[in-house]
Amino acid sequence: MEIRLQHRDGVAVIKVLGELDYSNVEKLEFEIKRRWEKVIEIDFGNMRFIDSSGVGMLLNQARRLHKQGRTLRIVNIPDFIRENLEIIGYFQVMECLERNKNI
Amino acid sequence: MIGYNRKAIRVGKLEGCGSSLPAGKVGGDFFEFFVHNNKNVVAAIGDVMGKGFPAACLMKTIHTMLCECVNITPHPLEVVRRLNKIGGDELRRRGAFVTLCIIYCDGETGRLSCVNAGHHPPIIVSNGEVKVVRCRGVALGLLEDYLGTGEEEIYLSPGDMVVMYTDGLVEAFGPGEKRYGLERLKKIVHQQPDADAAKMKRCILSDLKNFTRGYSQRDDITLLVLRVLKKAGEGCGD
């Protein structure tokens, strides 16, 4: 996995390339944790694979940032990854976070 | 009333079998059969977030809780709601989640109830047609209360089959970084209209082995097949 950092209009953009799994999930978690911006955007445009450890870490970070009044959002999600996230319920959890209930 | 720790089952008009292949020495996938009233079967399949020993330990905990929940009531929606309640705190404390799909099959009527918590939905083979169950839900541990589309009911006829699997099966890597995929799984299932549960399991695993030959797999692979016998006392191939 390769991580590229950008800054755009006050938003931290973290581009993730390759495969996010159990073996490297801490690397992306570290990058998210050290950002200070209100909005952190994870760009999945060049992702080939994500496992449950990757999904779990992103949900945990989204929760943590939400408690701080900040936002984690994922953009450019390839269809096969979107399908997996939908099956797990990722987007429903994010909706609940935004509505601030049941979480 | 309810027995568990079964990897294969044959009760009344129902037969089932399953296999779990961890990617490492141990894994976070699990499956289980339970017998209810000596004629009905509850089948569950799940996948704990993560890999290796930590996932395997958490899997044991969740599996024990699942058995307790099914013993209280085998109703799938109640099992999922209760398991999410009693296991949810532990999962959130560890920053983890579990995907689970559970079915209850009435051996007399063929009525199948299915509830899904973040898991790939089962495949139903009925009268030569292959369908994917529609029910969806959020994985266990992600929300305080289980959220999903509810219980889906399907009536199975003699010879019909249910195939349940974890993501490691359909996401298994083969040549050119291709995945095994749901379409290939549906195709191989469709090609075995007269197979019993054990033969269906063998055919799927054999096709998967052909596809992944030479490519190491990064995720556990678990498969469970439940079938309504064509007639009582029908021979079993495993």
Shape descriptor of chain A? globular
Question: What oligomerization state is this entry in?
Answer: heterodimer
Strand content range of chain A: 25-35%
**In this structure, how is the largest beta sheet of chain B organized?**
6 strands, antiparallel
CATH class identity of chain B? Alpha Beta
| Through-space gap between termini of chain A | 30 Å
Regions with little confidence, pLDDT below 50 for 5+ residues of chain A: none
Helix segment count of chain B?
A: 5
Helix-strand topology string of chain A: EEHEHEHH
Taking all Cα atoms into account, the compactness measure Rg of chain A is 13 Å
Task: Kindly list the characteristics that best describe this protein.
heterodimer, A: 103 residues, alpha/beta, Transcription Regulator spoIIAA, 4 helices, 4 strands, globular, B: 238 residues, alpha+beta, Phosphatase 2c, domain 1, 6-stranded antiparallel β-sheet, 31% strand
Give a summary of the structure in a few sentences.
The complex is a heterodimer of chains A (about 100) and B (about 240). Chain A has helices at about 25-35, 50-65, 80-90, 90-100; strands at about 1-10, 10-20, 40-50, 70-75.
Question: Would you write up a description of this structure?
Answer:
- The complex is a heterodimer of chains A (103) and B (238).
- Chain A has a single domain (2-99), classed as Transcription Regulator spoIIAA, CATH 3.30.750.
- Chain A is built from four helices and four strands.
- Chain A has helices at residues 25-33, 52-67, 79-88, 90-99; strands at residues 2-8, 11-20, 39-50, 71-75.
- Chain A has a four-stranded mixed β-sheet with strand order 1-2-3-4, covered by helices on one side.
- The longest helix of chain A is centred in the middle third of the chain and has 16 residues, at 52-67.
- The model of chain A has no long low-confidence stretch (mean pLDDT 93).
- With 238 residues, chain B is of the alpha+beta class.
- Chain B is built from five helices and twelve strands.
- In chain B, the strands form two sheets. Chain B has a six-stranded antiparallel β-sheet with strand order 1-4-5-6-7-10, covered by helices on one side.
- Classes of the chains: A alpha/beta (103), B alpha+beta (238).
- Chain A binds chain B through residues 21-22, 48-49, 51-53, 55-57, 59-60, 80, 84, 86-89, 92-93, 96, 102-103, and chain B through 47, 49-52, 95-97, 99, 117-121, 136-139, 142-145, 147, 167, 171, 177, 179, 218-219.
